[in-house]
Amino acid sequence: TDGSSNNTTSSKSQDARMNIPYSELKFIKEIGVGGFGKVFLGEWQKTQVGLKISSLASSEEFMREAELLM
Predict the structure, then answer these.
(1) What does the pLDDT read at residue 10?
(2) Residue 52: Cβ within 10 Å count
(3) Could you report the per-residue pLDDT of 25-39, keeping only the tens digit for each?
(4) How far apart are CA 18 and CA 34, in angstroms?
């Protein structure tokens, strides 16, 4: 193979990791506000996490920003 399918598979895996059902998230308190949205202290699967409510115009912008954090 030329390896291109591995990139597609990897990309799909990353997309799946970023699609967490909203009902699984627990928002505890707002900890920050910026030009791109609000950040909350939260919990997911009994793990403390930072949750961002994005105000970005498109999902592509959001995905670019999220990839920087991974």
Answers:
(1) 53
(2) 19
(3) 999 999 999 877 899
(4) 21
